[in-house]
Amino acid sequence: MSGEKVAIITGSTSGIGLSCAEVMAENGINIALHGLMSDDEGNKLAAEMAEKYGIKTLFDGANLADPASIKAFMARVHKEMGRIDILVNNAGIQHTESLHDFPDDKWDAIIAINLSSVFHTTKYAVPVMRKQGSGRIVNIASVHGLVGSANKSAYVAAKHGVVGLTKVTALENAEHGITANAICPGWVDTPLLQKQIQAHADANGLPYDEAKRSIVTTKQPVPEMADPRMIGEFIMYLSSDHASAISGAALPIDGGWTAQ
Hints:
alpha/beta, globular
């Protein structure tokens, strides 16, 4: 893919988002990074990536719970980088609690970050992509966009919403060279889950690897988590010309979780 292409990746300063950014950077894609860190930290990360891969980068700490902040972020990327070829909506938050006790503010925050922000970024990316005659939108949903789990009412509702929004985006833009797909990961080996595994190991007196297998196999047959880079490589494929016939799909990377 051409080095002129520009990708916006929300939540790209760690985990799946950072792995996706690194894979795309390796392929010569210019990157607009986004995440929860200071401007100094974010600009440093962007500069390091630009130097390492010989690409253009920028960092923006837009508040994805604020539509006006998202609008300004998208406009900035288009103005400073000239294009929007790839949009990866990856940012997300989580809170677990029974539905009848679920705090209203947590519900509102999860819907805003995990679902509404996807609508707002897409709303501003699509006109640019239509004018260019091409574009790729990849939304990171979750296996919870396909199935439910107890105590995750807001997260499951948001991720199901992302899958539905992805389908509508694909249908409305099918004749404009734009594809939209949702990736639905199961267990992914990120720092957040590593902490959860260690806590499970400590609480049950288990070695880390045994605790990891115990947690993973409660949901999926394959006893291993996906590496974040696997997700990044798949996003890169969906963003390529080779995937032009794939649109409107909800694609699990879940170790067989939803095959059961």
